[in-house]
Design brief:
The complex is a heterodimer of chains A (268) and B (192). Chain A has 268 residues and is α/β, with parallel strands linked by helices. Chain A is built from eight helices and eight strands. Chain A has a four-stranded mixed β-sheet with strand order 2-1-3-8. A four-stranded mixed β-sheet of chain A has the order 4-7-5-6. In chain B, strand 2, helix 2 and strand 3 form a beta-alpha-beta unit. Classes of the chains: A alpha/beta (268), B alpha/beta (192).
């Protein structure tokens, strides 16, 4: 097994320690025998079992996005990454999860044009991998402010309302408790890209911008008063974390983009 | 925790309330999109669902000698089966529908009429549910539907879930949605 294959196996089977710790804190807040307690307990048992057996945490092994330090461009080449993905699929660490969008046929080794996605960047250390399942990806959204239906003007209060609305609409679909990556501003494409990148941050990572740090904290606290709870059955923990970044915008546009990640937050 | 073992009799199932945590043992059958479509089109199903359980699941199952081994068996989203489920409940005599995310008001009504419940399994918990499957007792429609959509007969032990829609007309999803929506309106108003 080479280091890229190990990276894929471990990302698929091991929940990051900060996410597991947040789930442990969540289960302690719920009364014994409640739906929320049962769901969180099952999730934690699942995490332990997947780790012990090196099996996927979730059967939807997701869209694979590799973030590679630019200096490693010659070492972690697209060819090597694709070979590792094919091998990981053969060994059952990844589901056959890649389908042609025109004719529906399966790419049985999970490799095709832009699959897996590979980003080379100066801002990354080493090789990182994000695996995001379809159920959560379907719940990512973009708002264009102002939006009168949610009383969202072009300010941080408006941003807050858009994010809370997104949490409300995700219930019953994305597997809660989840994590939000948010981008304020940018063009539409940058918004989705930067929002998703925020999901690489650890839960204890706080935005260096004090205004965004305050917003991250406020939204986490407010969203957890909605009572949606684990798997939408009610409870005190709806979100495990909120990570926000901002990008400049043109005067005419004000996008708020939210990337939803389910509890099975597979990053490495 | 309420322990349920196949066969699931009507009296016990009607006594279950939304919010009850359950642990299921015995035989359950998987069925998802193709299964429901086949049934709605009048196709034959060689499985007796009376007092039984239907699980919305597309498992990963591999050959293991002469038998089968289940590698992943988490729930799939149930809403896709909304158009078919009331008729399935009426005709099959099924008592437990197990899935993820809940179902519509027509299904809720059918649960009440025929004495069945909807059980929420934990989304994404592929490993724990695969572990709950102690034996694959058989499979139907494997050639026609493929492994992910076939009707698998799983013998399970301590398969955990929560009653989310009961036979008395209560749906946790509806209740949580309406209370969270009103709380969300409050939070949005506060900010203005």
């Amino acid at each position: 097994m080479n280091s890229l294959e190990r990276l894929i196996r471990d990302t698929s089977s091991f929940l990051p320690d900060d996410v597991e710790a947040a789930l442990r804190r969540a289960v302690r807040k719920e009364p014994h025998g409640s739906s929320a307690h049962v769901v969180l307990k099952t999730i934690l048992d699942n995490v332990a079992l997947a780790r012990r057996n090196h099996t996927p945490l979730c059967q939807d092994t997701g869209t694979l996005v590799f973030y590679v330090e630019a200096a490693l461009r010659k070492k972690a080449t697209p060819e090597k990454i694709r070979a590792a993905v094919a091998e990981a699929t053969r060994r059952g660490w990844l589901r056959k999860n890649c389908i042609d969008s025109i004719d529906g046929r399966s790419y049985d080794d999970n490799c095709a044009e832009d699959a897996p996605l590979i980003h080379y960047s100066e801002n990354v250390k080493g090789v990182r991998l994000l695996m995001k399942g379809g159920g959560s990806e379907n719940m990512s959204r973009q708002y264009s402010l102002p939006d009168t239906s949610i009383h969202a003007g072009r300010d941080l209060n408006g941003v807050r309302n858009a994010i809370l609305d997104a949490v409300l609409k995700t219930q019953g679909y994305g597997c809660a408790p989840g994590i939000l990556g948010v981008c304020i501003g940018g063009d539409r494409a940058t918004g989705y890209e930067v929002a998703k990148e925020q999901l690489l941050r650890r839960l204890d990572d706080i935005s260096p911008d004090p205004r965004l740090a305050r917003l991250e904290k406020d939204i986490l606290k407010s969203a957890n008063t909605l009572g949606i709870g684990p798997m939408g059955l009610g409870g005190k923990t709806t979100l495990l974390g909120v990570k926000i970044a901002s990008r400049p915008r043109v005067p005419a546009s004000f996008f708020v983009t939210i990337a939803y990640m389910c509890w099975a937050c597979r990053r490495n | 925790m309420i322990f349920l073992r196949y066969p699931f009799d009507e009296k016990t199932v009607r006594s279950l309330k939304a919010g009850d945590a359950v642990s299921i043992s015995g035989i359950i059958h998987t069925g998802r999109d193709k299964f429901h479509k086949h049934f709605a089109d009048g196709g034959a199903i060689n499985v007796d669902f009376r007092d039984g359980a239907l699980y919305h699941c597309g498992p990963v199952v591999v050959r293991d000698g002469d038998g089968w081994r289940v590698k992943a068996a988490g729930p799939t989203t149930s809403v896709r089966e909304n158009p078919y489920e009331p008729a399935f409940i009426a005709k099959s005599g099924v008592r437990l529908i197990i899935g993820k995310g809940g179902m519509d008001s027509a299904t809720l009504e059918a649960l009440g009429l025929y004495g069945a419940v909807y059980i929420q399994a934990v989304g994404g918990a592929a490993a724990i549910y695969a572990d709950a499957v102690k034996r694959v007792a058989g499979v139907d429609m494997l050639d026609e539907f493929g492994a992910a959509e076939a009707c698998w007969h799983f013998e399970v032990e301590d398969f955990r879930g929560v009653v989310a829609m009961d036979s008395r007309g209560r749906s946790l999803f509806d209740e949580v949605y309406s209370s969270s929506a009103s709380r969300c309106r409050e939070l949005i108003q506060q900010a203005r």
